[in-house]
Amino acid sequence: MRDLKMIIYMFLAVTAALTLSLGASPAISAEKTINLTYGASESITHTFSKADVAWIDKIHKDTNGRVKITPYWGATLLSRRENTQELIKGVADLGYISPRTGYPLMLGSLGFPYGVGDWKIVWRIYQELGEKFPEIDDEWANLKIMAKSVSSNYQLMSTKPVRSAADFKGMIIKATGAYAEVAKTLGGSGIFTPMGETYVALQKGTIDGCFAPYSTITAFKFNEVAKYLTVLDMTSSVRPTRGMNLDSWNRLPKDIQGIFEKSIEFWSLEDNKWRDADDVAGIELAKNTGVEFINLPPEELAKLYKAAETAMLKEAAKLDEKGLPGTKIFQEVRRLVEKYTK
After folding, report:
1. Which residues contact 282 (CB under 8 A, 6 or more apart)?
2. 298: domain CATH number?
3. C-beta atoms surrounding 133 within 10 Å
4. 286 and 225 belong to one structural domain
5. Do 267 and 289 belong to one domain?
6. According to the model, what pLDDT value does residue 31 have?
7. CA-based angle 123:211:292, to the nearest 5?
8. CA-to-CA distance for 284 and 290, rounded, in angstroms?
9. Sheet of 67-72: strands edge to edge?
10. Last residue of a domain, which of 259, 278, 297?
11. What is the number of alpha carbons within 13 Å of residue 318 lying toward its C-beta?
């Protein structure tokens, strides 16, 4: 009997020791440095990267140094073309994302909020839109979205003045997707030209103009070969631009996940701020180098936006055919545009 009691006491002692040992593990784990990688598409001097640096610094501060993020700039870890799929596969823990395929709802609805000059209004519209259409975020279930951005508005840079909708007739314009359809509806033609080849195409007269953001004036020096800028405000939607690999996200302790969650709005607004700064810099460069800015009369702008409506409804119908609420989203976007731009 005494031997049995001794065995029981020993069993309880060992169990207690194990319990104390296991109970201490989370505390030790909590102090361990969490090393993560971030794949950036641009160099460290690019304005997008400035938003990244601000976020990385914030995370380091908010976690008291528990999280260390090592950035890889200039598409050295994640490529520009395949960054989203590479991030899903775990090539990096975090990264800039710009998918060209695989996200039909995002890609098909990019041009729906045309005609809104203020990115803050577009941001507000899409905050409401996401609450009404969960399908928008459901499309990104294979990543943890860490930031969303308002894409810069497209204007027309051209080698000849465009002062009316009729002036588009016969023009060859660098454009993609629904924007090519806009050019076609106006009597011109939209052709795909890589951004890096657009300067030479404008210089040689291969194209007459390009739909592009103000920021490209600074980045690609279009002001040297296209002396006319027609303000169109072909507004793009809000889209995810930073993501995290799901396995990497799930490995994070709950308290660190909470800090990351709280930082999403910060990263988004930082990126939007710098995108806006890029456009401002482009406008200033164009004005200082003799580019003529053309504002279409209201009746001509209405013709342009009618062409945009035709193009976007076609994109919406394609989404409907895939079982996605393309037309419903288009209608809601236009309702909110009217509501917030009166």
Report:
1. 213, 214, 215, 216, 217, 218, 219
2. 3.40.190.170
3. 19
4. yes
5. no
6. 67
7. 100
8. 10
9. 67-72, 34-39, 94-96, 238-244, 144-150
10. 278
11. 14
Please state, in angstroms and rounded to a whole number, the distance separating the CA atoms of residues 145 and 95: 10
Mean pLDDT value of segment 58-84: 97
The answer as to whether 6 is a domain residue is no
Read off the tokens for 19: 């319990």
Residues 46, 96, single domain; the answer is yes
- Tokens in use for 131? 């609450």
Give the count of domains, the chain: 2
Range of the domain at 81: 32-102+142-149+238-278
Average pLDDT score over residue span 233-251: 96
What letter does residue 177 receive in the DSSP assignment?
T
State the Cα–Cα distance between residues 129 and 133, nearest whole angstrom: 6
Tell me the pLDDT band of 336, cut-offs 50, 70 and 90.
very high
Tell me the whole-structure pTM to 2 decimals.
Answer: 0.85
Residue 134, in any domain of the structure: no
* Integer Cα distance of 265 and 256 in angstroms: 16
